[in-house]
Each structure stands twice: as structure tokens, then as C-alpha cells.
Amino acid sequence: MHVPPQWQDEPHDVSATHDSAVRVPCSAQGSPPPVMAWRKETAKGKWAPVHAINSSARSFSDPETIWAPRFQNENWQTSKFHDNFSRRRYFLTQSTANSFSTLHHINKKMDTSKKSFSKRDFLPREMENSADTRSLSAIMGTDAENSLFFSAIKKTHEGRYLCQATNGVGAGLSKIISVLVQEPPRLSSESPTVEVRVGAAATLKCKAFGDPPLSLRWSRDQRELASLSRFIVEHTTDVKDGGSAARLTIEKVGLQDSGSYRCEASNPHGSRTAVFKLLVEDVPGEVQALRVEESGSRHLMLRWRPPTETAGNITSYIVRHSLQQEVSSTTPTEVHVQGTTTHTTLEGLLPASWYTVAVAAANRVGRGNFSGAVTHRTEEEKPSGAPRDVQVTAASSTSLAVRWESPSPESRHGRLLGFYLGIARVRDSSQDDALSYNFTTVGSGGDTSHHSAVSGLVPYTSYSVVVRAFNAQGAGPPSEPVTTRTLQDRPSSPPSGVRCAGVSPTALEISWQPLPQDDANGIVVGYRVTYVPAVQSESSHIKDGSSRVSLGASRTNISGVVETQNVTASIDGLASWSAYSVQVSAATQAGYGSPSPPILCTTKEGIPDAPHRIRAVAYDRNSVVVSWTTPRHPRGRIVSYVVNWQVDGVPHDTGSHRTGDGETRYYKIRELPTHTLVKLWVQAESAAGLSPDSPIASLTLTEEVGAGIWSVGGSVSAAWRTDVLLECRTAGQPQPNVSWTHDHQLLHSKGGHGQARVRWQVTENNALRLLNVDRSSGGQYRCTAANQFNTDNIHYNLTVLVPPSPPSLHVTKTTSSSVRLQWHVTDDGGSPVTAATLYYRTELGDTKETSVKDSHATLAGLECGSRYKLFMICHNSVGSSDSSPVIDVTTKGSPPEAPPQFQFITQNGTQVTLYLGLWQSGGCPITHFTVERKLGDDHWRMVNAEVAPTRTLTVGGLEPLHTVRLLRVTAHNSAGATAAVYSLQADLALGVDSPWSRATAGQGPHTAAVWQDMRVVAPALSCLLLLLGAAVKLLLCIRNRRSRLATAKPSSNGLNSYISSDVIQNDVKTDDDNFKKKVANTSRHHVRGVESRSSAEAEYHAYADVLYKHSASSTYDPEAEHRFQHQEHPEAALKAGCGDQQFYSVVYRQPLRRAYPDQAASAVPNDGSVVIQTYRREKPGRKNSTMVAEVQDVKKSRFLETSTSFEDREIYDRDSRMK
After folding, report:
1. Phi and psi, residue 1076, nearest 5°
2. Residues 193 and 233 reside in one and the same domain
3. What is the pLDDT of residues 168-180, one digit of tens each?
4. How far, in Å, are 78, 631, 756, 765, 768 from residue 725 at the CA level?
5. Residue ranges with strand state E in 542-675
6. Which residues, in sequence order, are CB contacts of 477 under 8 Å at separation 6+?
7. Shortest CA distance to 282 belongs to which of 208, 400, 369?
8. Pairing relation of β-strands 791-801 and 714-719?
């Protein structure tokens, strides 16, 4: 029956949003089933077919997928497509490809055996040869249910579509539907960011696409921009692409116009917003934090921070610098630096000159203002001359003594601070110009002649020595190399390749390799071979697990020394088949070196001794059991024993038997006649031959078989905590009774059955097993066997070997890195001590151990100045002892020692130099320094927590602030740490931008005038008032003294009596001896003018040149000067008097003007000024009254302006001596 098509799912018009998925069903029914087809109306009014998405030629099951290509001629990757509308998953989708090559799909039969398909497999025939492909942004077609499907509908899909159903019956069905795509706004911006200079016009353009009506509006800060005088909005429409545009123009922009602008596009389907940024550029602001980061004699390295206020990229920096002293100079020098960097180096400057530097930033708009000026002084030049007259001599095998003269004065170029002593090892193939020198800082620059010692060298080695002088700015050229060889020493290593071989039963041949020259430490003059018997195990194991020592064994004690100049040696007179420990050491003129590691050497086998004990007992009336011991000296491995016997009176009735091995030591002889004397003897056999006959054992066999013991007995040694088996094998008829005694105390009496005990037990064959023996188990054990015909017994002497007693440990010598120890044990436990283990650790460190073989040991490689805990355990063949008592030992060395302030710190202009090299190491190398600073009442703040032990540390960026500043420098070494506090002068404190203050200051340098800063004015006024008060008190004191001195008689030496005194004798033991001590007061201030102090007495004279003690009744003695014996600053004592009280006057030069050898060059010239300090010694518990005054010119000034008779010549001579 034929039925025309009827709509089952009639298509309808569709209106969809852009990029959404759309499915339009169209299905009909009839008989036969109708054929469904979709067509789309083209621009020319024709209907083009819409192809099916899946192939009808092949049906894919639900889990299957197909391959999809990314590009032409490439395979497609597996991907699965899921249809949101249908229930099938046959659609092509993209895996890693960004687009498909075609929109069209064809019904094409594919080979089911193919695993992948090329793009051409999916192209329709009319496109197979076409190179025109389009990006597949959305899939359009019909699915398996003939529905029209759009995966992401586009505006191009909009139009009319025709769905047809035909089956050949009737006219068929068809319906035209319209597909309408609703497109919301889309924005396209040409320039999202616009840059413009201040005062210019800025234009922002916003373009949008979408369904009309489409509107655009500009806004900023959520406010719409109207067309005002400065804001102009123009709307335009593009005829080609149908887009709408809105142009925003801002005339004469300013910095306030910078920011974000929003363009909003809207239509009935939605809205979109685009954000534009407008950047308005202006000249940069002022450069921040300009500072001198590094300075040299002819360059300055500058660093700064970019301006905080800038409206555009900085294109360059202009660095302007000029000499400060050139008041009427021409245009300053300018250097341009790229805008991407914030540092530069000024080259070609003059040494030791003050420069004023300022920096300005520039961009394409223009140049900004210059920063605040920074003033800095260039450094000195390093020396250009080398030290003279260098002399080097060998002081020992590991050290050299070096002497030299300073460079000529005209080549020093500043104050010499010390010297670099360089040393290099010279090899045969080395040349002077190829040597690599290791330099050490030595000496000081104050003297003309210098000397030093170089240690830690290789013995008998040539070294080249050079010396370089250095000042605060570096080192000069080296001196001419001088080559010297160190003295010979003992060899540092033993000979290698030591070998030995036994050449006879009593001789060994030893050979070794010659000692390398690098290890000889000199010229090898001979070798020494030392041999001692090797320590062998004290015990051997038997089958039942017990332990015992071979009976009758002995150890050879042959040892000795052989010296030779060859690399071979022969040793004779040794014991046969004995092991020896052999060591070889080499010798130079300085002595023998360490021996080589011991090697074991064994002599060849010799003829063994005869078994030294033999025992024979009657086993029955016709049998004899004979047993024996091993030879005392086997001289080889016993391979068998030969048992010989002879029946007395029967010449031919003799016999012998050879055992199958060397372990069996008994034999039973049968079928012997009764009532006849039988003689028996035994021989031991080794590879070298048969031993002599043993002693003869004789017995006569009778009808009565008495009790007999055929175990031999003897001395036994055993290790503790083991089991020991003592055998007692018996014979006799009837069976004898056996009993055991220990030191005559009965242990067991056996009547046929064994009985177990707590510490011992008797086995079934009458052997006594001692369990877990200790020293109390030792002694004599006797086994007795008896029957009615005879009684026999044997005895064992048991020695139990135990670990040694705890060693006694003593320290005999300590150095900075080693400890020498001596130890001994009072009880070796019966077995020689073979080795010892030494354990050691620091207070908080991990425990380490080292093996010790001699009674003396040196523990090296220790930390300097550190405390160690040590204990020892010694060992023998049995085990290890308990540990010795723990001892404490400290290596030599102490924490670092701080130098005084006037040596350690120099302040020059706007920088501070710390001379770290002047710290005394205390015998332990300084590992690092820490530097802290304190401003006024502030807390200590870290400046540098890890400063390497260099010669100097220079800090710049100082400015004159009148605030008390303190520095705390801590030096660390392995022995501890030492902290010293130093003060900076009040008229040269640290600036805000220096490294000391950067930890707290976050802003740039302060450029206001000093008198405008209350932080400076307030302390200055306070100091001024204090100084005025002190001056008034000083004037009153001087006036009172003048009135008292009006009646004083002048002495013959030209001095008033109040400054005369008795001589301080060197041998006087009084409280004044405290004044002779050199107290390192590193926190003392040296202030010009008059000052009142309340410090300890030692502070006033610690670095004095002359010390005076005086009273009213004393007279001046020009020979009374007692000079302190200090190498760096000799001091003297002087006495004077004032009234009936004791006064002390201390005369010393200003520390910044003293010329100590280790002191750095000072910026203040040596003008010959001295400070005279007078104070009155009060009773204990009361402070000393002190007055200080500085005499600027000793040639014209008077002592406190009161000593009118103090001759100028005498003061000048005294000051000359002080220099």
C-alpha cells in the first residue's frame, strides 16, 4: 500500500542568538518511507543542498570515534563529538586543531580497515581539487534524523531553508522556514592604550558590530562624557562592514586626564564594554637618594633611585659634576646615562679632590630638576714603589725568615699601613713570571726596617718570596723575587709497595718502592725495616661450639730492626712458619719518617718439634690407647702423626701407624701380648718432614685392666663469656668412676650418669663443660678416674682471658689545632692490647672517633681555642674495655683582641675607615666580623652581619650631624667572639644616606641647611652650654692656682714647685703600678678643648706619652721619667705636685695626630699638639676630679697657662722624644 508523505515533525521558523547551537527537526512518514532533504536559498535565489554531517555508507557504533585532520595531508586525531540535541555521537569535532578545513561533509563509503583518514576523504568531489578552504568555526548540516543542525550559528547562516519529503507517491511535502540570527554588540578597539604629552590632543576610537539599533557611549569614573569644550564625541558608521564607531577627542590634556575611559556598546540583544587607557606624559620629577656607592682615586661610582613622580618613560639621566674648589669655573661637566639604568661611573677625575655631583632625569618631554648635590672626595693613589733590600733565610724545615726595607718615601703615595708578603713554591720547571703567589698581611708601615716569618711550608722546598707595600688605597708593585730553600725534615709519608716473601724457614726478603721526592722532605739517606711477631688470635673454635686454646702452644718473641740504603732487605734468624708484622720507614738527615702500614709476612715451614707430651693407658688386656699433644713449635702445618710401638723382648714385633690428618691426636693399638712391656712414641709430620721422636711412653698389659685417663691435660686459655670443654677420656675394666675438682673443691663424682649444674656440666664421656666462663672460672681442674685396680688423674690449668681494664688517659701537650695524649692500661686481661679507639667532641658537636695503635697519639685537625671532651676504649683479642673517664682539654687560642680607637678608626671628610686588620687574632684565625651602629639613644641595629676578615672596611656618605654615634664591632673566631664599642667624633657623624643609617632611614638625603634642622640645633645648644660651664669652672680653677702660686719659690730647674715630684722607681710596688698597665679603652672620646671626666684612672694614661705624679712638697727631677715598655707607643711617667694632695698629670698627643706604626693615615695634620690631663686621686670609693686641656702649639703655649717658668726648649725636647 502506498501512502504519500505526511508531516511527522513539521519544521518551523527559528530565531537564535549568535554562536548558539540550533537544531531544526523535519521528519515525515509514508509508504514507502519518504526521502528527506534540506536546501538553503542562495544569494541568486537558487536552492543549494545542505549535506548530511554523518556518512550513511558506514554506521559508527556508539563508543567509536573517527580521526580529524588539522592540516592537509596530515592524519586526524581521535576525538568524540557529543550532540546536545540528538542522542548520537557521530559528529566530527576538533581535538588539538584550531580549525577544520571545510564545512562540507559527503556520504562517502570508507574502508573499514583504515585506522585514520586524510582530509581528502571528507571533501566532496567538487572540492577535492580545490585549494579554497574556509575556517570551520561552526558545523552546519543534517543529522541522522534529518534535522537541520548548527553547532554555533553565525550571522552567515541566516536566511531561508527548504525541507522536502518525497517517496514517489503524490507531490511530496515541502516547507520553507526562516532562520534569524540575533547578534549582540561586538567591540573592536584599535589602540586600547594611548600616550600623549601634556597640552596635546588625545583621541580614543571605539568601533562596535551588532544588530541595529546599536548605540555607543563614553564614560569615565562611571560618569558619561558630554560634548563639552574639552571632550568631543563623534559617531560614524562604516558602510563596508556595517560597524559603528565613536571617537572621543580630548583637547589640551593635563596630568589629571590620565586614567581609564570606558566605551559601552548596546543593542536589544545585550551590551559590551571596552576599557581604554590614556597616559599623559610630563617632565620627570627629582631624582631620589643620590649617593656615592664606590670611590677611587680617579673615579666615582654613583647610584640613585628614579623619580617618584613621572608621567612617562625616562629616556636618560644627566649627571653633572664639578670640582668644589672651582668657584669661578665654567660650565660643569655633564654625562648622559641611559634611562634604563640608575647608576654610572665618573671617570677621569683627580685624586684626593672634592667633587659636587647632581643628577636630573629626562624623558621625551624634557629635562626635570636636578637632585640635591652630593659632595665626595676621591681616594689616594696606591704606592708606586716596591720594598727594598729583601732578604730571606731558612729558619726551619717549614718556615722562612724575611727582612726588608720600606719603599722610598717619594713612592709611597700615602701612609703605609702594612705589607703583603707573597710566597710561591718553585718547582724545577717553573719560572718566576709563571708563579702564583699567596699573600699574607704582615707588619706595619711606620718603621723603616721590617721582618716577618712564614710558616706552614713544605720541607726542603724552594720558595720565591716577594713583598708589596700597601696603603689605604691598595698595594704597590712587588719587590724582586728572592728564592730560598727550607731545611730538610723527616719524610712525610712511608715507602709504598712494601712486599715480602719467605725465602727459608728462618728468613724473609723485604722489598719496596723508592720514596717519591715530594714526600721525602729532603734527601733520602736510608731505610729502616722493623719486624715484630704478629698478634694472632688467642682462641680457636671446635665443633661443639666451645672455645679453647691449643695445648702447649707458644709464641715467638723474635723482633728487630734492619737498616739499609737499598730498597730491599733480608731478615735472618726468624722462627719457622711464623707470622711477622713488617714496616718500612725512610730517613733523611732530619731523621726517620712514619712507618708504612704493617704487612704480614710468614716464613717457610720447617721440621716440627716432637710432640712434647704423650700418654698411653691400657684399654683392655690386649689393647693400648695412646694420645699426645701438638709440638711446642710446629714450624708448619701438621699434616699427620706417625705412631710407633715396640714390644719389649720381641725384636721383630714393632709397628707404626700414620694418621690421616693433623687433627687426630690419639690411636688405639690392638692385639698386643699380655705381660709384656710395650714402648710407644709419636712423630709429627709437616711438608718439611718428620719431627724427632717424642718421649717414650711404656706400659705392661695384664689381666687386670686398671683405671686410666688417656686425655692429656695441660694449660688452657679461653675467652670470657664462652663455653670451655675439658676432656677426660677413660679406660679400664670395670668402668672407672670419674670425679672433677676445681682448686681442690669437689665438683662432681660420676657413677655412670652425668648431672647438670648451674655453671658447669659433665657430659656422657666424662668431659667437663664450663658455661659462660669469667675470671672466677680460672684455676686448676683435676679429673680423677678410679676402679678396684688403679687410680689415675690429669689436671688442667685454666686461664680466662677478659677485655682489658679501662685505659688511663692523659694530655701531655696542646697546640692551637692538636692535642698529644698518652695512655696505658693496668690490666690487659691476659691478652695483649692490640688497638685503642679515641672518641672526642666539642661541647655541642657530634662525637668523632679515631684509631690509636701506640701508647702516644696526637689528635690533629682540631678547632683553635675550643674545648673538647675525650675518652678512650682499648681492645684485645677478647673484646673492648669500658671507656676511660672523660677528660676535658682546650686547644690553645683565645677570642680576638680589639685595637684601641685611635688605631682602629679614621674619619676623613664624609667617610669612616675601619682597620679590621689591626684586630689581634688571639692565636685563632678570625672568621668574620659583625658591625652594628647606634644613633643617640636608639637600639643597636645591624649594619653588616658577615664581614670577611679583610684589611679595611670603608663607609662613605657621612655628613656633619651633632649626635652621639656609636659603632659596635664584633670579631669572631673558633675560640669565641669579642665585641668593642667605638665612638665617632661629634663634628663628623654619620649621614642619613650612609650604610649605617639606611637600616632606619627610608627617604632620600636631606638637603636643607644644618641650622634649620632642630635635630641638630637642640643638641648643639646643649653642648655649647656645657662647654661654657666647663670653661667658667676652668678659669676659676686657674685663677685660684695663680693666687696660690704667687708665693711659691721657683726651683733651680726652671719649673714651679707645684709640678715637681719625686722619681717613681721601677721597683716600687704600690697602687701606682696600675697606671703602668695598658688598658684597651676603645670607647674613650678625644674632644678638643676643656672637658670634665669621671672615668677610671687607667683611662687617663692608657696611651699617655708622659705621666707625672706630684705633690706640694716634691721637687722636680728631670731624670724622673719612667717610660713604659710598649713597642707601639712608648710611654713615660713624670711627677709634679699641687698642695698637700697627690695629683697626676698625663701628657699625650691627640690620637688622630699620633704616628703609630699600625695607625692609618689621618686627615688631620700632625701639628705637634699635645693634651695635658691633670686629675686628683681621691680616696677609694670617690670619683677622681679631672681637668683636660689641649695645647695646640707646644712651642708657644704654657702649661695650663700657669707654668711661666716652663722653658719652651724643654717642652720642645720632650715632645721630640715623644715622637
Report:
1. -85, -10
2. yes
3. 888 889 999 999 9
4. 84, 21, 14, 11, 6
5. 547-548, 560-564, 568-571, 579-588, 591-592, 599-602, 614-620, 623-628, 640-647, 654-658, 666-669
6. 383, 384, 385, 386, 468
7. 369
8. parallel
Does some domain include residue 60?
A: yes
Pairing mode of beta strands 270-281, 193-197: parallel
User: Looking at residue 784, which CATH number applies to its domain?
Assistant: 2.60.40.10
Indicate if 597 and 631 belong to the same structural domain: no
Confidence of residue 998 (pLDDT cuts 50, 70, 90): very low
Whether residue 225 sits in one domain with residue 276: yes
* pLDDT tens, residue by residue, 53-62: 543 333 333 3
Number of folded domains in the chain? 10
Which of 1106, 1062, 1099 lies closest to 1082 in space, CA to CA? 1099
For residue 178, being part of any structural domain is answered with yes
The one-letter amino acid at 649: G
Both 772 and 818 in a single domain?
Answer: no
Q: Quick check: is 26 in a domain?
A: yes
pLDDT of residue 1218: 35
Instruction: With respect to residue 452, please indicate whether it lies within any of the assigned structural domains.
Output: yes
Across 751-807, the runs of DSSP E, i.e. the strands, are 760-762, 768-770, 779-786, 791-801
199's grid cell = 597640552
User: 443 and 396: one domain?
Assistant: yes
177: which strand partners? 161
The residue among 638, 626, 630 whose CA lies nearest residue 698 is 626
Q: How far apart are CA 666 and CA 765, in angstroms?
A: 16
Query: Does position 1058 have pLDDT exceeding 70, yes or no?
Result: no
- The one-letter code for the residue type at 1153 is R
Residue position matching grid coordinates 698625663: 1146
Q: What is the DSSP letter of 1034?
A: H
Nine-digit cell string for 175: 516547507
Query: For residue range 519-552, what is the model confidence (pLDDT) as tens digits?
Result: 898 999 999 999 998 854 333 332 233 333 333 3
| Domain interval for residue 735 | 705-801
8 Å CB contact between 465 and 450? no
Taking the model in full, what pTM does it have? Answer: 0.44
Integer Cα distance of 281 and 100 in angstroms: 47
Domain end, chosen from 166, 182, 198, is at 182
Handedness of CA 488, 494, 497, 498 (dihedral sign): positive
Do 698 and 714 lie in one domain? The reply is: no
Would you say 322 and 375 are in contact if contact means Cβ atoms under 8 Å apart? no
Pairing of strands 1106-1110, 1131-1133: parallel
Same domain, residue pair 1166 and 1179: yes
Q: Are 1078 and 1185 found together in one domain? A: yes
DSSP string, 700-733: E--SSEEEEE----EEEEEETTS-EEE---EEEE
The cell for 984 is 665617632
Residues 6+ apart with CB under 8 A from 111: none
Tell me whether residue 1196 is exposed, middle or buried, using C-beta atoms within 10 angstroms of its C-beta: 0 to 12, 13 to 18, 19 or more.
exposed
pLDDT (tens digit per residue) in 382-431: 888 899 999 999 999 889 999 999 988 778 777 788 899 999 999 865 55
Give CA separation, 717 vs 486, 533, 534, 541, 543, in Å: 56, 20, 19, 12, 17
Which SS3 state, helix, strand or coil, does residue 647 take? strand
Give the list of residues 6+ apart from residue 803 with CB closer than 8 angstroms, or none.
720, 829, 875, 876, 878, 879, 880, 881
CA distances from 346 to 303, 355, 963 (A): 11, 11, 32
- Report the alpha-carbon distance of residue 157 to residue 183 in Å, rounded: 12
Of 887, 891, 748, nearest in space to 814 by CA:
891
Q: Give the separation between CA 312 and CA 285, rounded to whole angstroms.
A: 11
Asked which of 281, 316, 344 is the last residue of a domain, the reply is: 281
